[in-house]
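Title: Prediction job returns without error message
Component: structure pipeline
Severity: low
Priority: P3
Assignee: unassigned

Description:
Job completed but the reporter wants confirmation the result is attached to the right record. Sequence as submitted:
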Amino acid sequence: MEISCVILAGGKSTRFGHDKILERIGKTNLLEKVISLVEPISKEVIIVTAKERNLPRLANRPRIQIVNDIFPGQGSLGGIYTGLVKSNSFYNLVVAADMPFLNESLLRYMIKAADGYDFILPRVDKLYEPLHAIYSKNCISPINSILKQGKKVIVELFNYVKVRFIELEEIDRFDPKHLSFFNINTKEDLEIAKSMAKGAT
């Protein structure tokens, strides 16, 4: 199945203190790390960011486009909407720019599971992972409606489209430690990620 990837990079890094996606993990920064993890499975990579945010130039990567939020200030749901509108694919993998341990095997499994559904996301106990999910273009109109109602909660989409949950036993086949969902909110998280990247933990 042909799929594009939308990377959400519009966050303000409030808890971190400064722009976290330019922090380095190993030999590369966080944003480039995420790009390198999704590029092998993506027709194109769309980075959605706030208008005032400056991202580093991404040399020699013609399949990458950087776009600004269509609905500024609407959080992740607004970013997802923007990515879906700008994408050239019916199905789109959406991830956050601060997730350095994405698992290609799990992502490929989710892509295979997407056929016939519009919103495909992991569910661990009662926790959902909507920023590690696949959205079809059929989500565009419902998201527009949700945003116009003044809501920003992604799971509101459950009420409008056909959802496929990737359950715990499916996740555990590929990522038993659930590192796929580890994201960096604080400087402590960054240090943990650096240690994990070195194989220390």
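Comment from assignee: result matches the submitted record. The chain has a mean pLDDT of 89.
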